[in-house]
Each structure stands twice: as structure tokens, then as C-alpha cells.
Amino acid sequence: MVSGTLPNITYLPSYPFSGTDTFAFGVTDSLGAASVGTVTIDVGAAPAATIVVNTTAQEVPSLTNGNCTLAEAIKAANSNAAVDGCAAGSTGTDIISVPAGTYTLALAESTGGSRKYALPFITSDITIKGAGIDQTKILRGTTSTDMTIFYSYGRLTLQGMTIGNSQLPTSAASNNPAVLSSSQLTVVATKFINNATGNGAAITNESSGSTTPTAIVRDSVFMNNAAFNRGGAIYSRDANLTVTNSVFFNNNGFDRAVPVQGGTSIWTMGAASFQNNCFLDAGSTSVLNIISTTYPNQVNATNNWWGDSGTAVNASGVTTSPSLTTRPTICDLALIPSLNIAAADVAGLISAIQYANSQSSPITINLAANSTYIFLKWARRMSPTN
Hints:
6% of the residues lie in helices and 37% in strands. It is mostly beta strands. It folds into 3 domains: 2-43, no CATH class; 50-333, 3 Solenoid (Pectate Lyase C-like), CATH 2.160.20; 336-386, no CATH class. Strands 5, 6, 7, 10, 11, 13, 15, 18, 19, 22, 23, 26 and 27 form a 13-stranded parallel sheet that branches. A 6-stranded parallel sheet has the order 12-14-17-21-25-28, with no helix packed on it. Strands 16-20-24 form a 3-stranded parallel sheet, with no helix packed on it. It is globular and about 110 Å long. The termini are far apart.
């Protein structure tokens, strides 16, 4: 926007525009001779703030104690103001740095309708960056699995973390996916594990108004997610969806049954592209349940590895050929780690169970063939959780 009165003119770009912009001006001298010129302006991106989370604690209600919790960091980024020990956000894209560790969310920050929310809503442009896919873990508490962790109607990027539950819950509410987005969502190098809800246990990408949401997912892992109705891992309705170089393993309906309305891995209605993914969700139903393949554009599902999946897609008119003929390396991220126990090694078996209980990912414990493990007494009761 250009404003002011000559010779003092002010140019103000529209937020969040960055790049090259131009505007023209005309000059006429006292003799009536006229000339037109063009002004070219390079507009840089708005400055970004980095807000560093310095505690794994959840504080509900909020405390003023010098800490910077994940919830406080989101509030600082949304408001562009310092919150407790968190630095102020900016008018640009704010980066929230979440160090390695397990961040347990046991209480709801807020509620609305049938949903509970573990963290403040994302209302601005925020990137939440963990230390690595298995290094930063954002998990619901063991008795508080019925919560949406991230809800965004701003612009949210999630990168380098694990999101979900320490184990698949025995029950789940119908409206609490791990990530709920009604705007713009980008997910990079993130693992979703043991989430459970009605539709899209890991990610629900759906419109809540006139704006068409967009979700872009790449280099990510979806394991052991379960939905009652649609989309074991991802549910996308009246929205655009792109999934690239990601792996889907052991996602299904709740209690490992088939989702009532299909989509072991993904249920989608809208423009969609699935490229270079590894689908390892076996079952009798379709891995991709695609509704209205011409709404609004053709769905492209070429160059994927279908592994031991059930039917690739449920709809005609979806391009799935060619498929990958060589198993992509992204599949390896879904491998379940295993522990081998020597013959008669009772202490080793106990240690293996304790270790498996401490992990958010499944662990396979292999016992030696033709071996007997004798327990003379129990020091305490042990209940495996994985």
C-alpha cells in the first residue's frame, strides 16, 4: 500500500508478503511534459523470534515462576509478548524450540464442546521444532488420553518430535485427534504413535468455515493409531492434503477392527496427493479411503509402496500406477525394535519388560527357543504396557 502526499510517500507491504514489489509513478513538469517511472522494492521476511522451552513441566493453571513451558511459549508466540520466562514472539514466523525430553500433558488447558485441549490454540504463524523424531516426545498422560494436543487455526509447522500416547488407550473420545487443523499445517519428520479417536487419530484436517485448509506431511511416521469411524491415522475433509515420503504401520480401527467407514491409513475428501510413501497397514479394508475423486481435483496416489497392505484405494479414477517396485528406506522407520533374551535369563527378561514399559514405541521381546524361564518369586507385580 502506498500512502502520503508528495514528496513524502510511504510504502507498506501487506502482511505477510515478502519478495519483490513494484509501483508506478508519474511526473509532469511546468511545461506539461510527462514521464512515468517504476519503483522496485525488495521486501524481506518479517523478523522471527525463537522461544526456547526450558522445562518439561505442564503448569495448569499457569504459574509465574521464571519457567518457559510449551504452553507459555505458544502464548508468547501468539501474543508477541513475553509470558513468564518465555521471550516475546514477533510479527513474523516464531520458532518454538523444544529440547529433547518427554513432555507429559496430563491436564486440559481448555475445553470446548466435546473436545479437550492440552495446549493453547495456535492462532499465529508458529514453527514448533523438537530435537529429533525420537528425542522430543509430547505425550498425553496415561489417564488423560482424551485430549487434542495441538489445535491450529493459524499457520502451524511441527518438526522433529513424537506426538501421542505412551500406549494405545483402552477407550477414547470421538473428537480428540493429536493434531486438529482448520488452516495451514505442515508436518516434517514427526512420529504419531498410539493416538485414538473417532476420525483421524493422528491428524484431522478439516474446514470449519469458508477457507479450505491445507495439510502437507513429509518424512513422517504413523504407528499404532486407531479411529472408530474414518482414517486410522489421517482424516481430511473439505481440505487439501499432500503426504510424501512417510510410512504408515499398524494403523487401523479401534481394537484393531476395521474403521467403520474405511481408510485404514487415510480418509480424504478433497484435492490430495500421495507420493513415495510406505503403506504397511494390512487389513481387509482400503488403505486410502477416497471420497469424490473429482472434488475438487483428481487424486494422485502414484509411486507408493503398498507392502502387505489391504486394498490400495476404494475408489475408481484414482491414479495409483506406477507403484514403487523397490521398498523405500522410509519403511525402516516403522521397524519395531526387538530385544533377545538368552535361555533361562529371568533377570534379563524382567529388565527387558521394564525397558519396554518405559518406551512410547512398541518393543518385541524374543525368548530363546526351547527354553524355560523359572520365576521363584515376584518382588512386585509387573504389568507390561506395550
